[in-house]
Structures are given as C-alpha cells and as structure tokens.
Amino acid sequence: IAVANQKGGVGKTTTVINLMAGLGKAGKKCLLVDADPQGNSTSGLGINKRDVRHSTYDLLTREERASEAILHTEYKNVDLIPSSMELAAAEIELVELQDRTMQLRQALVIDCPPSMGLTTLNAFSACDSVIIPIQCEYYALEGLSQLMSTIKQVKRLYNPVIELEGILLTMYDRRLKLTEQVEEEVKTHFPDKVYKTIIPRNVRLSEAPSFGMPALYFDPHSRGSRAYQELTKEILKKYRNQK
Ligand code: ATP
Ligand code: MG
C-alpha cells in the first residue's frame, strides 16, 4: 500500500505510522518504507536520520536488496526502510535510468513525498493499492483528479494491479461547517471509496512524533489513536473478506 497525496501536510505520515503500529499490534508483520526525503516517518519511529546507513535511496538507485536496509523498530512487528537526505537526489539520478519507475518493485513503499515525481511513481509501480489521505479543509479536492489520472496512467503503463485502496478523511473538525462540506463532496465523487473511519483533529497525534513514537503507543486511548485503531480494523476486515 502506498499512502500518497501530492498535497503536503494532509496526514500521510501520521496515517502511515499509526496504521503500521495498529497492524503490528494486531499481529501483522509490516514493513514501512520511508520514500520521503523529509524522513518524517523515520524520525517518527524514533530512528535518528544521522544513524541511517542504507536507505530507500539505495533501493531506488543501486539495486540494493531491501533486506540490507531493513531496521527493526521498538514497535511490535514494525520494520522500517528509512529515508535519508540523499533521497532528494534520487529524483535526478532516476531520470538517467532505463527502468526508472521499476526500481522499487521488489520492495514495499508506503510514505510518499508531497510531489508527483519519480519517487512517487516508483511507489505506485511497487504497490498494489493507494491510500489517499485528504485534509478536511478548503482546496482539499484540488489535485485529487490529477492524482486519480496519474494512478490510471500508472495502471496502463507500469502496474496493472494498482487500484485506489481508499480515501481517508483526516484532521476532521466537527465544529467547522467546511469540514462537513468537504466530507459530502468527497463522498459524492467517490461513493464506495471513502473509509467509514474518519480521523479527527487531535493534538496527541501531532505531539507523538516529537517523542519518536506512534500515537498508538504514546497515548493509545486518545481520540486520534482510537480512530487509527478503527482504521486498522476496517482495512484488515476488507482484506479478510477479499480472501
Ligand atoms: P508531508 O506532505 O509534508 O509529508 P504529511 O501529508 O505526511 O506531510 P503529516 O506529517 O502526517 O502530513 O501531518 C502534517 C502535520 O499535521 C503534522 O504536524 C502532524 O503532526 C499533524 N497532524 C496530522 N494528522 C493530524 C490530526 N488528525 N490531528 C492533529 N494534527 C495532525
Ligand atoms: Mg509526510
């Protein structure tokens, strides 16, 4: 699963970290691939970026085996392929390569940068599906149609299995009229694709990363953590029903 939206700050990293923590607690072994040079999901799991030796960059540009780059985290069943500053250069180096969108195919990508460059295209070529977090604010829907057509194009050119996994409404604030409007509009456009679970705006979710912890560990009973636990269940249930 790739978690993507070219819009910045919509909750991609928060979703990735807490979904991983939830899946891990549910007994699923999972691998988080930090494909964003900002490295927020790397530091959010308590890994110091300065200690990183092998990163997603090496997977993208050097045919390094994923197993070489995997780090174990303190969190149950959650492993990580970390980001590094060099990842920013991958965008430029990849342009030179032949199979430039296929470099991650053997690995597993999750946290995408807020851009539609070659790193995100690699994520889309390597994944089976995409989760799109949407912040319940003005302009939320702008860019969504572009993102959908990029996914369609990837499906045609590189990855026939890719599909939209679901749209996740994040930073929901019931007091704001606008929030409800965004919710209605998204549900009109994508009736079957919006997760029932909605992530509320919750300060514990934003505090957890500075402690290098998923909110699910930092404060498991907070509203934000409970919402991400619900999301984990919703996703697991869907996969069970598919089998
Ligand atoms: P980028 O595009 O820069 O990678 P992103 O899409 O990964 O950003 P996050 O880093 O997850 O977005 O979230 C942006 C900011 O909002 C962060 O400071 C995060 O802690 C905060 N945040 C995310 N979700 C919530 C929420 N539900 N309630 C309150 N704050 C949140
Ligand atoms: Mg991020």
Structure description:
- The protein has 243 residues and is α/β, with parallel strands linked by helices.
- It is built from eleven helices and six strands.
- The protein has helices spanning 12-25, 40-43, 56-61, 66-69, 87-95, 118-126, 144-157, 177-189, 203-207, 215-218, 223-242, and strands at residues 2-3, 30-33, 71-72, 78-81, 129-135, 163-170.
- α7 links the parallel β5 (129-135) and β6.
- α1 crosses α11.
- The chain is globular and about 50 Å long.
- The mean pLDDT is 89.
- The structure holds adenosine-5'-triphosphate and magnesium ion.
Strand order across the largest sheet: 1-5-6
Give the SSE string: EHEHHHEEHHEHEHHHH
Helix proportion: 40-55%
Distance between the termini: 17 Å
Structural class: alpha/beta
Instruction: Let me know the average pLDDT.
Output: 89
Name the features.
single chain; 243 residues; alpha/beta; three-stranded parallel sheet; three-stranded mixed sheet; 11 helices; 6 strands; globular; binds adenosine-5'-triphosphate; binds magnesium ion
List the helices and strands and how they pair.
Blueprint: E1 2-3, H1 12-25, E2 30-33, H2 40-43, H3 56-61, H4 66-69, E3 71-72, E4 78-81, H5 87-95, H6 118-126, E5 129-135, H7 144-157, E6 163-170, H8 177-189, H9 203-207, H10 215-218, H11 223-242
Parallel strand pairs: 1-5, 2-4, 5-6
Antiparallel strand pairs: 3-4
Give a quick rundown of the structure.
This protein has 243 residues and is α/β, with parallel strands linked by helices.
